[in-house]
Design a protein that fits this description.
With 336 residues, the protein is an alpha/beta fold. The protein has two domains: 30-126 and 252-315, 3-Layer(aba) Sandwich (D-Maltodextrin-Binding Protein, domain 2); 128-250, 3-Layer(aba) Sandwich (D-Maltodextrin-Binding Protein, domain 2), CATH 3.40.190.10. Helix content is 43%, strand content 18%.
Length: 336
């Protein structure tokens, strides 16, 4: 005969098992979701995360909290998410730099951008521009190049560090134009832009959303965009290609991914919610007003973009003679 203690033990086990089966069968999500941003407050992924998170939480019926884990060109945040459980409760809002470019620029990267993530969707194109301080006597890229050639090593450019899109685009410019500009790395583009505004550096490739307010005040001057085409927020701003630099092309984007192996139900819920969210008039307009261009790729389209970016960035780095560095160090760049 079963004793009272044995009965209570078996009952506890059965109740726990039933609860476990119930939780497993419960529709996703059943608790709050973490959205990890690889940039500091004010950076592109942080700004986008704080636009997206509240609305996504409303649509999923659970809170979505934003956590900033900046550093190492976004690879610290990406590593954290790559190693998280694939259950849909830890997501990464990432950039083309942290997901694709770091694979080319950082030799000891502890994750693979394709193998270690489940692609959900790109949420926005994040146009970059070349901004210079108002004290630099250049109104276009050609004038900047002439000014830099007359003063080798004199100009400084703020970036968000080794392996970042801003630093890589600067190297493209230096190589294509044959100029010597000192790169000064910061912990993110927001502090790099602040350094530019306070005259600690002379120029920077930065997201349009970060520099546009300063350009309107006359503190900074925008010379062009390295994107493949002009963008909606500033159609008057020419590309660097249009200004005679066809090799200086970098399209920046921001997307959301989860750890590899995300099950079908949470993936489908997240894809559906995010695509509906991005098409809602209020979010769409808020993104435009913040200097972003909304995108709502499918997971397959997103994965194809990342693969293509890795291929293109690898070819660019090879052409420039850029040797991948270790995380937190500078890459070796041949001749630039």
């Amino acid at each position: 005969m079963m004793t009272r203690r044995q009965f209570l033990t078996v009952s506890t086990v059965l109740v726990a098992a039933a609860m476990s089966r119930s939780a497993a069968a419960a529709p996703y999500p059943v608790r709050s979701i973490r959205l990890i941003a690889g940039h500091p407050p004010g950076g592109q992924s942080d700004v986008l995360a704080r636009i997206i998170a509240p609305k996504l939480g409303e649509m999923l019926g659970r809170s979505v909290t934003v956590e900033n884990r900046s550093g190492a060109a976004g690879s610290i945040a990406a590593t954290l998410v790559a190693k998280a459980a694939p259950d849909g409760y830890t997501l990464l809002i990432c950039s083309s730099g942290s997901l694709a470019l770091t694979r080319v620029m950082i030799a000891d990267l502890p994750y693979d951008p394709i193998r270690d993530f489940t692609m959900i969707t790109r949420i926005a194109s994040t146009p970059m521009v070349l901004a210079v301080g108002h004290w630099i006597p250049a109104t276009n890229v050609r004038e900047l190049i002439e000014y830099a050639k007359a003063r080798p090593g004199y100009l400084t450019a703020g970036s968000s560090g080794h392996g970042s899109s801003s630093g890589f685009t600067l190297e493209l410019l230096k190589s294509a134009a044959g100029i010597d500009i000192l790169q000064v790395p910061y912990g993110g583009l927001a502090p790099a832009v602040q350094a530019l505004v306070s005259r600690q550096v002379d120029m920077s490739f930065a997201e349009f959303s970060l520099v546009a307010p300063h350009a309107r005040k006359g503190t900074l001057r925008l010379l062009g965009t390295p994107g493949r085409s002009r963008f909606a927020a500033a159609p008057e701003l020419p590309t660097l290609h249009e200004q005679g630099l066809p090799d200086v092309v970098y399209d920046s984007w921001t997307g959301i991914v989860a750890p590899a192996g995300l099950p079908g139900e949470p993936l489908a819920r997240l894809v559906s919610a995010l695509r509906e969210l991005l098409r809602s008039p209020d979010v769409y307009q808020k993104l435009l007003d913040s200097g972003f261009e909304p995108v709502d790729d499918t997971p397959v389209e997103f994965a194809a973009t990342v693969k293509d970016d890795v291929r293109r960035f690898t070819a660019m780095a090879t052409r420039l003679g850029i040797v991948p560095g270790r995380a937190g160090t500078s890459a070796a760049s041949g001749g630039s």
